[in-house]
Each structure stands twice: as C-alpha cells, then as structure tokens.
C-alpha cells in the first residue's frame, strides 16, 4: 500500500477578481478548467452575486479569457443552474450558454447531468430538484481519457450496433434497429454523473455552494492529461484544487474572497489521505474487478 502525498508546490492560489487574474495566465497553457461561478442573485449574504439581467455581460469577458488560456485540446466545464422565480425557471443560463458559443467563440461539446440527490422542499407545482447541468466547451477537439474512467458493468455492448439490417416493424433499412448483445465487462460511463452531495452536510470547510470532490476527480481523470495543468476561476473552498493535487496535476486556484483563500490553504495543509486495508485475498475477479488494477493507492 502506498500513501499519497500532495505536492503543495503544484498549487498556485491567486486572490482577486477572476477576469483580472485570468489575464495573468499565458496563452494556450491550461489543459482543463472546471468551475462553478456564483449563481445569479443566489445566496445573498454569503458572497456577492450578479443580477440575472447582467450575468452574460459580466461572464463573457471571463469566457474570452478562458478561451485564450486553454490549450487547443483543453476543456472548459461549467457547473451552473438557473433559479426559479415567480413560478418559472429563469432563462439566463440558457442565454449564457448560447453567448459563450457565439460571443466567446468556444465549441459547445456537450451537456452532462450531475445527479446530486433530491433537495428537500415543500410540495410544489414542480417535482423536487435532484440534478444540475455541467456544460462542456472546448477550443478544438478536446482530450479525453476513456480508460481512466472505465467502470465495471453487467450490461456492456458485446457487439457493435449499426450493422446493415431490415426492420420489419418500421420498414427501415440500415443500422441501429437491433439491440446489441449485452455482456459483463468494462465500459465508459455515460453522460449522467452520479455524485450525491449528502455526505457534504458535515463538511467542516464552510462554503454555501461546494460540489463533491469525487465529481471533480472524475472529470479531471476524463479530460485532463497526466501531469496537466488545471484552473478553477471561482475556487471557493478549494475542491477542484485538492482533487487536482491528489491526481498529480498542477492547479491555479482563483478566488476573490480572502476567507475562502485561507480555507483553501488550510484544506490543502490539513489533507490526510484515506488508507484502505488491502484484503489478504488477491482473487478480486469474482467481485467483477480487474485484479491487475491497483484499488488501494491511498
């Protein structure tokens, strides 16, 4: 068993406004950006918000700096969800996504569903909220490491779909009609990400809008190459930064509030890896686990 030690020299904390601090980062130098900026007019009293009708005007200059510093193979993942007001959901996030594409010039790669567990609420004309979107942008064709995020599944596709066939019910000729054989094996996860936030309730690093570190680690493994450089322009309590250091990546953490910069430093300094006692038996295959994979690195 090996104990993971953080290389604290790989973290650079920049205190200040995101747009100004992004200007200090060289062109084409960042492999991966994952951030959750302040939501419009939410959590007043916790940190300064931006009105919904001013949000795009505020964020687009930041998005342009993000495009400038991203490498051609880099990815920018944005976690943000619009609030509800007077019985309907605000449209500012949807307008922002279009603006990032059209005004900042970034490619809109995909939208991921982060299932974060149901939020307690009174009965309403809406169903309880249980997910948030994560929007994926890039400059060109982005890097992705499928092998780093493979999972064991009992229903992987054992044969390719899309072979030529005739469907008697529809009369269509072509592929994608027959269901492929499903077998046990390793597969790439889909774009619904299951990382519940329930365990964050007792988190001592007090921040009103933190996401689970497992989510950040998953996305870093997928979209940031080994020894790459990560940036979080709204780093908050430092979840992205800690995940980056745990995975041997460099990180630039930007945070405007002094109290949160201190939390980031304290969190990195106090981090202690969780150790798992390795079972005596090496026969992991019966549990559906590849015995050649080291599950006990930390």
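Sequence proposed for the structure above (298 residues):
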């Amino acid at each position: 068993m090996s104990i993971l030690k953080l290389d604290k020299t790989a973290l650079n904390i920049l205190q200040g406004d995101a747009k100004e601090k992004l200007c200090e980062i060289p062109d084409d130098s960042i492999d991966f950006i994952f951030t959750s900026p302040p939501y419009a007019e939410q959590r007043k009293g916790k940190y300064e918000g931006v009105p919904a009708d001013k949000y795009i005007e505020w964020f687009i200059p930041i998005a342009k700096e993000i495009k400038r510093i991203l490498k051609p193979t880099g990815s920018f993942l944005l976690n943000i969800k619009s609030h509800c007001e007077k019985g309907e959901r605000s449209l500012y996030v949807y307008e922002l996504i279009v603006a990032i594409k059209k005004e900042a010039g970034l490619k809109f790669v995909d939208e991921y569903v982060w299932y974060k567990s149901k939020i307690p609420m009174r009965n309403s004309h809406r169903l309880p909220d249980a997910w948030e979107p994560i929007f994926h942008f890039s400059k060109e064709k982005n890097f992705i490491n499928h092998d780093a995020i493979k999972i064991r599944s009992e229903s992987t596709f054992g044969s390719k779909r899309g072979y030529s066939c005739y469907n008697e019910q529809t009369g269509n000729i072509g592929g994608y009609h027959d269901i492929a054989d499903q077998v046990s094996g390793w597969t790439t996860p889909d774009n619904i990400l299951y990382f519940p936030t329930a365990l964050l309730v007792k988190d001592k690093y007090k921040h009103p809008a933190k996401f689970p570190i497992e989510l950040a680690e998953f996305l870093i493994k997928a979209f940031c190459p080994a020894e790459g450089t990560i940036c979080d322009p709204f780093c908050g309590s430092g979840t992205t930064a800690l995940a980056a250091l745990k995975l041997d990546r460099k990180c630039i953490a930007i945070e405007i509030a002094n109290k949160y910069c201190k939390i980031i430093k304290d969190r990195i300094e106090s981090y202690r890896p969780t150790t798992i006692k390795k079972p005596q038996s090496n026969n992991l295959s019966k549990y559906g686990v590849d015995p050649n994979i080291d599950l006990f690195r930390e």
